[in-house]
Amino acid sequence: xxxxxxxxxxxxxxxxxxxxxxxxxxxxxxxxxxxxxxxxxxxxxxxxxxxxxxxxxxxxxxxxxxxxxxxxxxxxxxxxxxxxxxxxxxxxxxxxxxxxxxxxxxxxxxxxxxxxxxxxxxxxxxxxxxxxxxxxxxxxxxxxxxxxxxxxxxxxxxxxxxxxxxxxxxxxxxxxxxxxxxxxxx
Length: 186
Hints:
The protein is mostly helical. The protein folds into 2 domains: 1-51, no CATH class; 54-185. Helices cover 83% and strands 0% of the residues. It contains 8 helices and no strands. Helix 1 packs across helix 4 and helix 7 (120-130) runs antiparallel to helix 8. It holds the Pfam family HAAS.
């Protein structure tokens, strides 16, 4: 495959990028081809050394999304980075998605427990309004204790959520480096 075909396929793989970034990337690769030709290589040799333009596009997209989540830490950027890393290969589907779903389930369960405990007195008050004859003071005191425990769990879940998110971002970066260049870039 020649330079023009390689760049055309790479441009298609970068369609999710803004036009300016697409042009910058394509100009970099065009310059890479020019330098390679000056060094006596053919366009086909240069294209073969770069690998598949589609795979290169996936790697660049994953790197772009991981950098975005580092710069502007939002949930949507995090999920874009997650899906971009998973898109790098089937191996990532198993290695990234499985632990992510397990940890996300644990985090969601922790938040649900926290919120439920904090709202326990509301349940006791509603029960008291609906059935005043079965009110017991210890239920109210127990629910207030659960509220305190729920607040502590909520504070803990906040820090655990941030820590796990940061560890996943580190793993995304490691994974992109591994796919891009093997152990040489680790």
